[in-house]
Write the structure tokens for this entry.
Amino acid sequence: MHRFWIAPLIAASLVTASVVFAQKPASSTTNSSVRGAGVTTDVVYGHKAGLALTFDVYRPRTPNGAAVISVLSGGWQSGWDSLRQFQETSDGAYRLLTAEEIVKAGGILPSHSYLGLLDKGFTVFAVRHGSSPTFGMSEIVADLRRAVRFIRRQASTYGVNPDRIGAWGGSAGGHLSLLLGATAEIANAKATDEFERGPAPLAAIVAYAPPTDLVAIWDFWKQGGPPRFPAVNMNVAEQRVYSPIGYVSKDDPPALIVHGDKDVVVPYGQGKSMYEALTKAGVPSRLLTIEGSGHGFFGEDAKRVNAVMVGWFEKYLAKK
């Protein structure tokens, strides 16, 4: 069966723990088989530890003026190489691999899920952050806050309205997306770059199987032996600081949470409790329960989930 989304908390040990850095200048393709106007890779949005933090930009053929930030994070490690989803053609362009080709190569990678967004006119920013365990949660979150501010500042360059940007991620990426949405007002007064000092509002969030209460999930993971995710290995006070559920307020962006009720990596209650808190606060929200599904969605479930994700962004990032 085809897997159209992968949230690799369950396979985090297989992901290289390092900062992703640009190995070549940003490049762009315009091959029509990408089902978009093209892809620009390795745009640098910041530097740390002598390396560059990067994102890729997927541009639709017919832009609608809105964008989705895809938070590439599994186990709070980041670093999928977008070019693994493409094959270079004889004319130096790239074509998007088919689902069958990617499965044969070892698994569906995130950009396959971008096709529905591209078809509806969304620009997609696939953002990487400094990885655990080299970097802790505070630095991971700081990277992503900078990325949101950088993209908002550069929005006109990509034909995007800065007030029509959403965020989406699965597993750790879902946790980080919800946290970014709920803490958009947190500023960095000490930032060297002026653009990074102000708020960074997002207009909509989609989170697949997100950890939302780091205190509770750390206790859950400890029941199965030493937890595998060092980014969450903090004291209780710090875990609360980075728990999205602790920041829910009525001005949070609309949030769609998708969770399998048989998830044994991130228990279903994590997503459900976040949904209940959002609803109680009056935030437009929805919990889509995928019955019988674990930590990831397959086949028809994957198609349904991705369709609902695109629909959520269509509804809340519509032209204002």
